[in-house]
Amino acid sequence: MFAATLTRKTGLTALTIVFVVTSVAASMWMIAFDGMAMLQELLKNLNDRAGKSTEITSAENSLWLIGYAFVCLFSQLLIIPSGSLILIAAGFIFSPLIATIIFSVAQVLCSWPVYRMGELIGEKFPQRFEVLTSKFSLPPNWHKLVQQEGFIATVVLRLTPVVPSAAACLLAAGMNIGLKRFIPATIAVCWIRPLFFASLGGSLQALTGLSEVSASAAIAPLLLLFIAALLLLVVKLYLRRLSAV
Fold it and tell me: Among positive and negative, which fits the CA dihedral 123, 127, 132, 138?
């Protein structure tokens, strides 16, 4: 029994290492080695090829959708935002609805394993809440209040424009937000950001117009939705703290 438990922990630790190394390597490639530019150029070439083709068979379309699904799954492992560009391109090439459904399903499927990785990482830092409380002068037992409001806290994480899915999973696990709150909240709101960016892509005349989109104007509705969710969480945490006094 002990050997089986030890083997299981060793396997999970190995998976954690693989996840971290893959995520960091992919993120560094996109940041330091023009990975994002290469991805955008690839998407442009795919779009040009599709535009020149007079007829696209259902088999070819299925292959493109399968490829897009794998890209979505891979993007959920990155520690930097990568889904926005992918969704804008997919919304233009396919349709906003199809792009949103595939991306959202990939996000839900990847949430549990990445969350588990976050739990394993959190076990290495059992004093993290005490350190944060002391460093930022937070109220005592603040993390327990966040855990009690795990559903709304997850909604805030998922709606934060600059927080990728993998980071949201790791943060939720780090704050000990239970899976019974984290997964339902993820399912409830995982489609909002993908639908927004995919719809933005569907409205573009060409992928070359991506550079002309004002980032601040584009994400303004998402920021308002995030702020509303954040205010709701702050109010609920404040009310819980008052009731506990």
Answer: positive
Least Cα distance to 161 among 92, 232, 217 occurs for: 217
User: In which element (H, E) is residue 55 found?
Assistant: none
Q: What is the pTM of this model?
A: 0.73
- Contacts of 79 by beta carbon, 8 Å cutoff, 6+ apart: 23, 24, 27, 164, 166, 167
What pLDDT tens digit does each residue of the chain (245 aa) get? 555 555 656 665 666 566 556 655 665 665 556 665 665 566 566 556 555 554 555 666 788 888 889 888 888 887 766 777 788 778 877 888 999 999 999 999 999 989 998 898 888 888 888 888 888 888 888 888 889 999 999 999 999 877 889 889 999 999 999 999 999 999 999 999 898 888 877 776 444 444 444 445 556 667 778 888 888 888 888 888 777 66
| Strand (E) or helix (H) holding 46 | helix 35-52
Cα separation, 53 vs 19, in Å, equals: 38
Q: CA 123, CA 190: separation in Å to the nearest integer? A: 27
DSSP per-residue letters across 126-171: TTHHHHHHHHHTPPTTHHHHHHHTHHHHHHHHHH-TT--HHHHHHH
* Distance from C-alpha of 222 to C-alpha of 229, rounded to nearest angstrom: 11
What is the rounded (10 degree) CA torsion for 143, 146, 148, 149? 180
- C-alpha radius of gyration, the chain, whole number: 20
